[in-house]
Amino acid sequence: MTIRSLDARYYTDAEVFRAETxxxxxxxxxxxxxxxxxxxxxxxxxxxxxxESLFAIRGRDHEIxxxxxxxxxxxxxxxxxxxTTRVVVCPYHAWTYEMTGELRAGPNxxxxxxxxxxxxxxxxxxAEEFLGFLFVNLDPDAAPMDAWFPQxxxxxxxxxxxxxxxxxxxxxxxxxxxxxxxxxxxxxxxxHCALNHPTFASGVVKPETYDIQPQGMCLRHTTExxxxxxxxxxxxxxxxxxxxxxxxxxxxxFSFQVYPGNVLNTYHxxxxxxxxxxxxxGWYSVAGVDDARIRALAQQDRxxxxxxxxxxxxxxxxxxxxxxxxxxxxxxxxxxxxxxxxPVMHLQRWxxxxxxx
Length: 357
Hints:
The chain is an alpha+beta fold and 357 residues long. It has helices at residues 9-12, 14-22, 145-148, 152-159, 180-187, 193-196, 198-203, 292-320, 342-356, and strands at residues 30-34, 43-49, 52-58, 64-68, 82-84, 88-89, 96-97, 103-105, 124-130, 133-137, 166-176, 211-215, 218-223, 245-250, 254-259, 263-273, 276-286. The chain has two domains: 30-141, Rieske Iron-sulfur Protein (3-layer Sandwich), CATH 2.102.10.10; 150-356, Alpha-Beta Complex (Naphthalene 1,2-dioxygenase Alpha Subunit, Chain A, domain 1). Helices cover 24% and strands 29% of the residues. It has a seven-stranded antiparallel β-sheet with strand order 1-10-9-4-3-2-5, with no helix packed on it. A seven-stranded antiparallel β-sheet has the order 11-17-16-15-14-13-12, sandwiched between helices. The longest helix has 29 residues, at 292-320.
């Protein structure tokens, strides 16, 4: 059976993008921050998910909680950016909240007859820690991450046994003039790799062994690597899987990649509008200390695969706006493999379901 790619409107229509923001991004697990951003009691960090401003804060019990960033009095936003506080104080009328969200005090509240401060609490959001990364879901009834992404936590723990020691070394912000789905699809197939990514295809992986298969709502990338002596950077690690590359894409907009040497980097797609996305590439080291090897790998990646992909996805977005485009058939090989677009088939089904229900 011929399976055709999605209509262009899924990538260009503002109403489709609004539906994704209100629906998909509000009902899926989204990356908020790294737990190392919240090192101390009272540390907080703001971020935006599904059009909502949220903040995470570490309480006196050392638990991290996430709340909507809005005062329950007259709706002023409570905090900006990041910092450390003993209580959360609204800048508008000084209503004051505990780090657990309960209202503590406010000017002249005793004048309000029958008012019970215990009846007021910030609205909490579901949050999970996943190997040092904080994810949130605005859907209070959403299944846990392990149900969405079966085996991913266990597999990543095998590839990154030192994950608890890792902290961000560098964030690379990559603006792309394309729809977020164009960028995600490009990331999720290697049909284009041999032609467009010579460094990746000849210096890291063996393209003929590359395959991507779904695990729940995760796309699992597996491959054999080139001979370690042929790698473009020095490999050293005392862990298992040190000679392997692997990737776990967590639908819809986050991915973990582990390069040979047990080097972690991540993708986080931040959708801006139908024609723009910012891809945040994270690179990590033990304790976040400077590491020349990881810096060199990040620079090589930026100069090769990243630069090559920007050219590709921006050309696709321009083509999607063309009146001459008619969605062609996906090349789906029943055997899978590097020259098959079966992962794009799965992605586009999820994309269609997210918009149409």
